Please model this.
Amino acid sequence: MSHPELRPRPPSPLVEVVDERFAARGVRLLLKRDDLVHPELPGNKWRKLAPNLRAALEAGHGEVVTFGGAYSNHLRATAAAGRLLGLRTTGIVRGDELADRPLNDSLARCAADGMRLRFVTRSDYRRKAEPRTRDRLLAEAGAAGAYVVPEGGSNALALRGCAGLGHELRGAADVVAVACGTGGTLAGLAAGLDPGQRALGVPVLAGGFLRAEIRSLQEAAFGGPAGDWSLAEGFDHGGYARVPDALEVFAADFGARHGFPVERIYVAKLLWALVALTASGTFPDGTTLAAVVTGRP
Model:
């Protein structure tokens, strides 16, 4: 089954920017503007969701259920995709204490796009991968027969979608860097790059859990390790959705210098990390560095 919203789109733009913080160290900086790949499902959200939604439609599912926190970009993207495709969507949201509060802007957008929101306890949410807990949560949400997309959209299908991002960057850069939430984009990106290219992930949450998660995702998608990748930790700025004043100032300045709006939760942390790593000499003189802009504000 084909649907116009799921058809392959042209490669997203790859643009060089001149920034003295990189040029002074002999590093060439490219921006992979994946935020422009789809008007409503930008960047890695389209790359991860499209293959899953295609599978849901082909299997005859009329509803998709997924998981996320109160500020989840993934929930927003899934809700928008459901509206575009005529699929019912349900979002299982971490934190039952939110049920009696006004919806924040992110969840209000999900609801406006038709997503049913089900708030669950944090302890249940932590155990959502356990089959018994997951089945109970789906049943309680009235979504027992729905197609399930995991938190962040990261599964084997999503990795194969993100490998396409790596294909588009073959031969274009020595190091391709991307911000990481659940690790799926990095896992797929690394698999799609040429030998000799390296993928670098910048986690936006603390915890040190991503290495094992990426290995597990690649095992499920590709049967084992794929590509050369590493993580640059310590740039989470206090945790997911935390945007301290210094990061806010940095993001506004970077956007003003280079003429595009910098998304704060992922992209700003990625760019901050690349400036810091370049200043510390992490990238040798002559390196071409590509930063993947995975979303927009």
The beta strands are 14-17, 28-32, 63-68, 88-94, 116-120, 147-148, 175-180, 198-203, 229-231, 288-292. The radius of gyration is 19 Å. Residues 44-58 form the longest helix (15 residues).
